[in-house]
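Weekly modeling sync, notes
Attendees: S.R. (lead), two postdocs, one rotation student

Agenda item 3: backlog of single-chain predictions. S.R. asked that every request posted to the team notebook include the full sequence so nobody has to chase files. The rotation student volunteered to paste the first one in as an example of the format we agreed on. Action items at the bottom.

Example entry:
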Amino acid sequence: MSSLNGAAADLADLSSQGYEPWLFQTMLNELSVSELGIEMVMCGGEPGAGLKDVRARIETAYGAKLYDNSGAVHTFHGVGCNSPEQMMHLVSEDYCVLELLDPETKSVVELRDGATGEMVFTYLDIEGTPFLRYSLGDVLQVFTSPCGCGRPGLRFKILSGDDQIWLDNSSGKTVIIKLRPNVVFHDGEKFDAEAAKYSLERQMTMQGSFRRPELGSVASIEAVDPLTIKLNLKAPFSPLIAQLTDRAGMMVSPAAIKASRTGSVLNGLIMASIFFTAAN
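Predicted structure, as returned to the notebook:
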C-alpha cells in the first residue's frame, strides 16, 4: 500500500510537470506503477508511442498494453491494434481523404504498400473546420497489405513530424521549438526565430492582449538560431504546448506591425502558426 500511495502522490504532480517528463522520471525512480492495476494505455500526441524501445519500457513499467492513436482534434483518425507491427489503422476513410506528397516537390505519391510521403488530408463531412489538403508536416509510411489483426483498410506509421519540441526533463522549465524552414508571411517577409520571438513577446506585453494569460507561464524567450526558439518558463506548465497550437501561438509579420500606425494588423496580413501550415 505504501508504494501505491507513493504512485498516487506522483500522479498528482502530473498536471504541473507534464506527461512525458513525469512518466520517464517515474520509471527512472523505479516506482512500481504496475500496482495501479492499469490494463491499457493509449498515447496520442506524446512522443515515443510508435517506437518499439519506448513502447516496451512503458508496457513493462505499467504492466499494461499500449496502443498508439492520432487525430484527437481533427478527422484523420488512426488507432493502433494488437498486431506486432505496431501500426495504426486509418478509421476515418469514409469522411477524410488522405494523400501523400513528396516532401520536396509536393507532387502526389501513390498510396501503394510501403509508400512514404508528407500527409495531407481533406475533410468531407465537417462544416466547422473544412480543411482542404491540410498538412500537419508529418511524414507517413502507408501499408495496403492485410494486417495480422484481421482489420481491413489502410495502415500507417508516423516516421517524423515537422513540429519538433524538446522539454528539459530535469526541471520542466525549458521548451525548445524548431521552426519550419522556408516559410514567409503574406507580405513577403521571412518567418524565422526572431519573428516568432517578436510575435510571442507582443502577445505577452501588448495592452489589452487576450493571449497574455495563456502565455503567463513564460518568463523569457530566446532566438537560439534562425530556426530555433527557447522558452524559459517560470514553472513547469504542461498546457503550454496545446496553447501554442491555438491563438497564442499564431505568428504575425513584425514588418507589417511596425509599419502600421497603431501597431495592430489593418489588412493584408496573414497569421502563420508555429506548427501548422496548409499544403499548396
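Discussion: group reviewed the output briefly. Residues 164-278 form a domain with the Dipeptide-binding Protein; domain 1 fold (CATH 3.90.76.10).
Action items: rotation student to repeat for the remaining queue; S.R. to check formatting next week.
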